[in-house]
Amino acid sequence: MQTLEAIISFTVFMLFTSYVLLQLEDYNGVDDSLYRYQLANDVWRVLYLRGNFEYLQDESQLDDELNEIDDMTGLCTYVGGQRGTSDDCRGKPTLEHIASVEHVLLLNGNAEQRMLSLYVVKK
User: Fold this and answer.
1) Burial of 80: CB neighbours in 10 Å, binned 0-12, 13-18, 19+
2) What is the C-alpha to C-alpha distance for residues 105 and 70, in angstroms, rounded to an integer?
3) pLDDT tens, position by position, for the chain (123 residues)?
4) Dist. CA 26–CA 105, nearest whole Å
5) How far is residue 112's CA from residue 71's CA, in Å, rounded to a whole number?
6) Do 98 and 118 touch, CB atoms closer than 8 A?
7) Which one of 36, 77, 103, 111 is most buried, by most CB atoms within 10 A?
8) Secondary structure of the chain in the HEC alphabet?
9) Buried/exposed 28-37: b ≥16 CB within 10 Å, e otherwise
10) CA–CA distance, 41 with 56 (Å, rounded to integer)
């Protein structure tokens, strides 16, 4: 009788364990989307605090600052869809999008919505 109880208990345990394990989705690590979004906002804030948005005619004036940020972070940065990045990112088809943020920017005295995007080079 104890053997039958043990077999039934083991079967119920295996069914319950299988059910729980099958409910788990593919877990590829921690969700870091908030940190990536904050990183993109930090890049925008650095540009703002360094005064790079004053008297801005177009996004190409940000290239030197973006190159410096790219060199320090190892990321590729785009502002307004224009590539303002270091030579490491130019011509690389294997860029992976990390995050994007949109802010209002004054271009030629006009307020315009611009997107800052961060990419990393896939290896």
Assistant:
1) middle
2) 21
3) 788 888 898 898 888 888 877 776 666 667 788 999 999 999 999 888 887 777 777 777 778 888 888 888 888 888 876 655 545 676 656 788 889 999 888 877 788 888 888 888 776
4) 40
5) 28
6) yes
7) 77
8) CHHHHHHHHHHHHHHHHHHHHHHCCCCCCCCCHHHHHHHHHHHHHHHHHCCCCCCCCCHHHHHHHHHHHHHHHCCEEEECCEECCCCCCCCCCCEEEEEEEEEEEEECCEEEEEEEEEEEECC
9) eeeeeeeebe
10) 19
Tokens of 99: 């995050």
| Assessment of whether the complete model's pTM goes beyond 0.70 | no
Cα(29)–Cα(83) distance, integer angstroms: 30
